[in-house]
Every structure is written in C-alpha cells, then in structure tokens.
Amino acid sequence: MKYDFDTIIDRRPTHCMKWDVAEGELPMWVADMDFAAAPEIRQAIERRAAHGIFGYQDVPEEWYQAYLDWWKRRHGFVMEKDWLIFCTGVVPAISSMVRKLTTPAEKVVIQTPVYNIFFNSILNNGRQVLESPLRYENGKYEMDFADLEKKLSDPQTSLMILCNPHNPSGNIWSREELARVGELCARYHVTVISDEIHCDLTDPGHGYVSFASVSETCRNISIACIAPTKAFNLAGLQTAAVAVADENLRHKVWRGLNTDEAAEPNAFAVDAAVAAFTQGEAWLEELREYLCRNKKTVQDFIESEIPQIHVVPSEATYLLWLDCTRLLDCGRESCADGSGAGIKNAAGLAAFLRRETGLYLSEGGQFGGNGDRFLRMNTACPRALLEDGLQRLKRGAAALKAAL
User: Fold this and answer.
1) Domain 12-30+281-402 has CATH 3.90.1150.10
2) Cβ(194)–Cβ(225) under 8 Å?
3) Helix %, strand %, coil % for the chain, to 5?
4) 111 close to 143: Cβ distance less than 8 angstroms
5) pLDDT single digits (tens) 133-190
6) What's the CATH architecture for 40-279?
7) How much is the pTM?
C-alpha cells in the first residue's frame, strides 16, 4: 500500500475528545479515525498555514466545483452549483434546519436505532422525537414501511431525518427503499433531511444512492447533508455542505444557516475540502480496503472467540453494531440470583467492559429502538489497536461469565 494506516499515533497531547480517557484505556467509541489525514490534505493545510494570516473567508468557485465533480464521478449524481451551501458541520446544519423547517412541538421522524445526536437536534430545539423503529429480523435491519407510514401520516409530523448510509447498522439503503420513503413523505407533506456523511465509506464493491438522485419527488422535498469530514478524518476542521435542489426550500435553509451563523468557513475549511475531493481519492481507496479488512477481522474473531455476540452485517461506515443479547441474558441471570455483575442492558455492559478491561465502546441505548441490547464498535484504527480491542472484549465476556 502507498499509504500508512498501521502506525499508531499518540493523540492524547492534542486535546482529543476520543482519547480523553484514563491511561491504559482503549477508546473505540466516537466516530473519528485514528489515522493521519491524507498527505495531500495535510500539504494543502500546511500551505495555507504558511501564509500566516487567518482572516474571514469567502467560499470560492473551486469549492463548489470540487463537490460537483466528486459527486458526479464517484456517485453518478449531477448537482448544480446553486444547490450547494457551505456549512460548518452536518450537526449544526441539521439543528438549524430543525428550527427553520418546523415549529415548536411538531414531530420529527427518525428510524431507530440511529445516530444519537439526532435526538439532541430535535429535543434541544423544542420538537418531539417520533421513532419509527427499524425491523430487526434474523440479525439484520430493514425499514418497517407500515410503521413509517403511520408515523409520517401524523398531522404533527413535518420533518424526517434519514441516515443514508445508516449509522450504526451499516445498511446502504437501496434505490427502491429510498423511492418508497420519498413517495410516503411527499404524500404526507414531510420534508426529508438526508444525512449522507458516511457515503464515501462504503465497502469496496458497494456504492450508495443519494436520496435526491432517486426521483424528482425525492429531489424536490429533500436536503442532503454532505462533507469530506467523515471519510477523510477532518471532523475538527468544521467543513461541510448542504445540497438543496428546490429553490424555495433552499432559501429557507440558507436563511436558517445564516441566521444561526453556521455558514461561514474557517481559514482551513475550504482548502481541506478541495484537497480531499481533488487529490484524496487514491488515499480513500486504500482506506476503504483497510477498513473492510478490519471489519472482517472483527467478524471472524467474534464468530470464533465470542459466539455470544452477533455482528450485524455492515456494508458501509467503519462502525460495527454488536448484538449482545446473549451476553446480556447472562447478566440478567446474574442479577436475578443476586450474584455477579448484574448487567441488565447495554449501558451496564459497556460500563462493565470499561471497568474490567479498559475497552470503551458506545452503549446502544442512546441510539433508540432496540439499541439497549447492542454496543457500537469503531474499527477505524491501526490493526494492532483493533486486535488489542478484540482481546479486551474477549476478556470482558469471559469475566462476565465468571461472575455468574
């Protein structure tokens, strides 16, 4: 491989949220990667830093062209320049749109379990979360369209936040599934925010379908949230975009982002995004291969060494959703007879693993739906750290069994 994903880089001296943990702990929770950014991106940032003046920034033509060319080439989706609006991040954009496109106490549909910050963007702005749980059968997730229609038809529902590809399950929604979502939302006058930040992190051989590309209906009722930050590990640079085809909807979104002061780039946001989309493709291709092998390593290890855990099949993201039902059943038995750890749910299991082994995973209850039986593992790290994490998980499962 041309690029190095194996070297372990100490992130503790950088005020890193992920690694703000006790000595000896291994964090595999929040969704950023333990890899250095592509050299081409680092060089662009270094050139900008060498200039020495970091004043207010405009969004140049190169930024728009980089997005347009990337989505056309990589994803077969032709956007227009006017559709694009710079924003400081997907989450600030979603929160702004929740405020601008809904009124207090209205309902926002999300398909759970799903990225937990969606809950914050809804609840913190005085709106109601309306969960449409994904159907979990035979160890895999699929959309429950009967339930989704019921929730969308509620007169108080005015907005849906779609996660495409889906975090935490790793599902890539098909064109047919997305078309059905669009038809239902159009029928009940519901606007769709499609969070597509993980779209470039599909497994090799797999692509994603942008919601707006599916049909004219989908295009006219939706906003796509897109960014280089997840795929190129640039979250701390605060650089993203929204793409809105419908002119009236776009004006509302633009007004909201500017009112909330979430539409102005910092000194490095434009240069990093342009470098990612114009020079980072080779790095991304090697990254995707590396991440796919990491996920396969986890799948194989857990199947052979920790059969009490089921790894939900994933086609996208570097996150794996671990069904710990059988482990939790052991914990409930322990609780029932008054011995052992007394683990009742994913929060208790995550705390137990962290206490016993130092392994820090995300507890699934915060993602809603049936998440209180699951843990989320971030596999975007050098293989030596991944193998360390798997051994810790194995020790933790054994410690739980020994506590019974």
Assistant:
1) yes
2) yes
3) 45, 15, 40
4) yes
5) 999 999 999 999 999 999 999 999 999 999 999 999 999 999 999 999 999 999 999 9
6) 3-Layer(aba) Sandwich (3.40)
7) 0.96
